[in-house]
Amino acid sequence: MDGTERLFERMVHEHQDRVFAFSLALTGNRNDAEEVAQDTFLRAYRALVTYEPDRIRELKQKPWLHRIALNVVRNRARGTRPRLVELNGSEPDHALGPEDGALLKIEMDALAQRVACLPARYRNAVVLRHVQELSYEEAADALGQPVGTVKSNVHRGLKLLRGDNDDDSDN
Amino acid sequence: MTTLTTDLKRLGDVKAPAGFADRLLAHVGMVDSYASFETVLGTVYVAWNGEGVSAASRSASPADFEEWFRKDVGRQLIAADPPKDLAAKIEDELQGRRRMRFDLRGLTPFEQAVLRKTREIPRGEVRPYGWVAREIGRPAAMRAVGTALANNPIPYFIPCHRVVRMDGKIGNYGGGGPDAKRSILTLEGVRVKRLEELARAGMRYQGVKSTKIFCYPTCHTGRHVLEKNIVWLHDEASARAAGFRPCKVCRPAAVA
């Protein structure tokens, strides 16, 4: 196993939960989330093998992976894909632990679904800021947008999630 | 207000599903996956990764296969559901239709050359070790060819059982010993007994009087020759002296 592969293995183990949670919030269901998370790491791997050692050393893995995941979701959205499938909590998972654990999971899935249904620019901003807890600066960097834009998108997204969409939400 | 942001924060604590990292590493070819398949040869364990099929063995149990794989191939291995077309590909390969991709990365260039050449031997035919050595441009490396074939990580699919000794002995076999080699060849339509008898009698090539071409005994171009046209030849020199030229398909000797 060469250096890049070892680095990648470490990266997967360190960031898998974060990337999966991010994908879940962006897609709204666990099947899509797993696909997005897997795609994200595959792209990361394909990029890593072409990078010079210097570039790899300077790489900020967290924002980098977030950027890749956003691109994966954006590209998938271009294909037609029905939203709001399997509202009732998907199939029972093998990891259906103690009662409250299962409940929490259903709650989280429902929330993820609501978040995923937001218009993309609000969704991305809200998820980066509040699910992934990036700073506004980091979120702006990952999205390639000015900080002010991100702030206002987070604000509107949260407002939509709370259900008071008096200022016109759009597509 | 606070509950929404707290909930969102908890959403960020969701864990990746069990086995996610392993499946991912398997996908890029850093960890191999395996499953067992029921085939004409019985239960065969097959390992694969993003590059292709990486190993096969008729191990007694999953644990045996895993142990052998880790020692022989030297990568990690996880049990997995096979890609949906793999079972069909395995079936086709064993029927003689070549569809598989292989991952031979762990092997030396010489070993890879030996295995690639071996793959060209058609089902129902055999070639001597020396043929493989000559074909890959290393005519003196017969023993090394034998070693490379003995260490073939993907027997059955890379048909090392189709390489036999010139003196009529069937030769050793990494995929389960000489008896297994004999039975697999028989299954493929090779008349092993006849082949052994011919070789013991020193009849190495089948010459055809009408065409003046000589072949290996199992070459498919010689399969429908009339009995009266067949003449058995002991070696290349006497064949050439008698006016025969080597077959261009099975290439029993360098075509001059």
SSE map:
The complex is a heterodimer of chains A (171) and B (256).
Chain A: H1 3-27, H2 30-48, H3 53-58, H4 61-78, H5 99-116, H6 120-131, H7 136-143, H8 147-162
Chain B: H1 2-11, H2 20-27, E1 31-39, E2 42-49, E3 52-57, H3 62-72, E4 76-79, H4 86-94, H5 109-119, E5 127-128, H6 129-135, H7 142-150, E6 163-164, H8 177-187, H9 192-200, E7 205-208, E8 213-215, E9 230-233, H10 236-241, E10 245-246
Parallel strand pairs in B: 1-4, 5-6, 8-10
Antiparallel strand pairs in B: 1-2, 2-3, 7-8, 7-9
Helix pairs in contact in B: 6-7
Shape of chain A: globular
Tell me what the CATH architecture of the domain at 24-94 in chain B is. Answer: 2-Layer Sandwich
**What letter string, H or E per element, gives the SSE order of chain B?**
HHEEEHEHHEHHEHHEEEHE
Helix content of chain B: 25-40%
Radius of gyration of chain B: 24 Å
Please give the order of strands in the largest beta sheet of chain B: 3-2-1-4
> How much beta of chain B, percentage-wise?
15-25%
- Computed over alpha carbons, the radius of gyration of chain A is 17 Å
CATH architecture of the largest domain in chain A: Orthogonal Bundle
What is the oligomeric state here? heterodimer
How is the biggest beta sheet of chain B arranged? 4 strands, mixed
Overall pLDDT score of chain B: 90
Query: Termini separation of chain B (Å)?
Result: 88 Å
Mean pLDDT of chain A: 83
Amount of helix of chain A: over 70%
Q: What class would the helix/strand composition of chain B place it in?
A: alpha/beta
User: Total number of β-strand segments of chain B?
Assistant: 10
User: Kindly, what is the distance between the CA atoms of the first and last residues of chain A, rounded to a whole number of angstroms?
Assistant: 47 Å
CATH class category label of the domain at 24-94 in chain B: Alpha Beta
Number of domains of chain A: 2
Number of strands of chain A: 0
